[in-house]
Specification:
Strand content: under 5%
Number of domains: 3
Structural class: mainly alpha
Shape: globular
Number of strands: 2
Radius of gyration: 18 Å
Number of helices: 12
Strand order of the largest sheet: 1-2
Length: 193
C-alpha cells in the first residue's frame, strides 16, 4: 500500500482523507499502522483500497517479484497474489504459489512472524524470521522475542491493561531489533566500500 501511495505522491493523511470520504474511520496513524503491519486490513477495506489508490486489485496485491505475503499464516508468492487478483484459481504447482517455511520459521511464534512482517514493511525490505530470531538472541542473551517481552513485562509495572503493556513492550523490542539490524547493515556497507 505504501508503494502505491508514494507512487501517486500522497501523504498518509491524504489517503486517510479519501478513506474517510468513503466511510472508513481512518486517520494518518491508521494508514501508518497498516503500512507497517501493526493493523490488518479488513475484507471491506481491501475491496475499497483499489478505488482509493486508483489501481486494479491485481496491482494492489502485487509487489516485488520475490516478495512473499503472509496471509493469516499461509505464505503466498507474488504469482499467487497476482492470480487471485485476476480472479483465477491457484491450480498451478504448489511451489509456484506457496512457500514452505524453514523449520525455524515453522517453530517461530506468532509474535516473531508478525514482527518480521512489520519490520519488513517499515524498512521496505525483507527481514526473515530467521534474521529476526538471530538478532533477538544476540541482543538479549539468547532470549527470543516472546521470552524477552515476558521477562520485561514481569519486571515492570505500569499503567494500562496487560495487553496494552505487552503491545508497548513489543514495539520497544521491535525498535531495538531494527536498530541492531540497521547498524549491522550500515557496518557491512562500510566494509564493502
Amino acid at each position: 500500500m505504501r508503494r502505491l501511495r508514494m507512487k501517486v505522491g500522497w501523504r498518509q493523511e491524504d489517503l486517510a482523507l479519501k478513506a474517510r470520504a468513503r466511510g472508513l474511520r481512518w486517520s494518518a496513524s491508521t494508514v501508518t499502522a497498516i503500512e507497517i503491519g501493526r493493523r490488518p486490513v479488513s475484507a471491506g477495506e481491501l475491496l475499497l483500497l483499489p478505488t482509493l489508490l486508483q489501481v486494479s486489485l491485481t496491482e494492489l496485491l502485487s509487489g516485488d517479484h520475490d516478495e512473499v505475503a503472509d496471509v493469516d499464516g499461509v505464505l503466498l508468492t507474488q504469482a499467487a497474489l497476482g492470480e487471485i487478483g485476476r480472479g483465477g484459481a491457484l491450480t498451478e504447482l504448489e511451489s509456484v504459489f506457496f512457500v514452505t517455511p524453514t523449520r525455524l520459521e515453522v517453530s517461530a511464534t506468532d509474535a516473531e512472524r508478525k514482527a518480521a512482517r512489520s519490520l519488513s514493511r517499515a524498512t521496505n525490505s525483507t527481514i526473515s524470521v530467521r534474521d529476526l530470531v538471530a538478532t533477538a538472541e544476540l541482543l538479549w542473551e539468547g532470549r527470543r522475542l516472546d521470552e524477552e517481552r515476558e521477562r520485561r513485562l514481569n519486571a515492570t509495572t505500569g499503567k494500562g491493561t496487560l495487553a496494552r503493556r505487552r503491545g508497548h513492550i513489543t514495539g520497544v523490542l521491535q525498535d531495538e531489533i531494527l536498530e541492531k539490524l540497521t547498524r549491522a547493515n550500515s557496518t557491512a556497507g562500510h566494509k564493502e566500500k
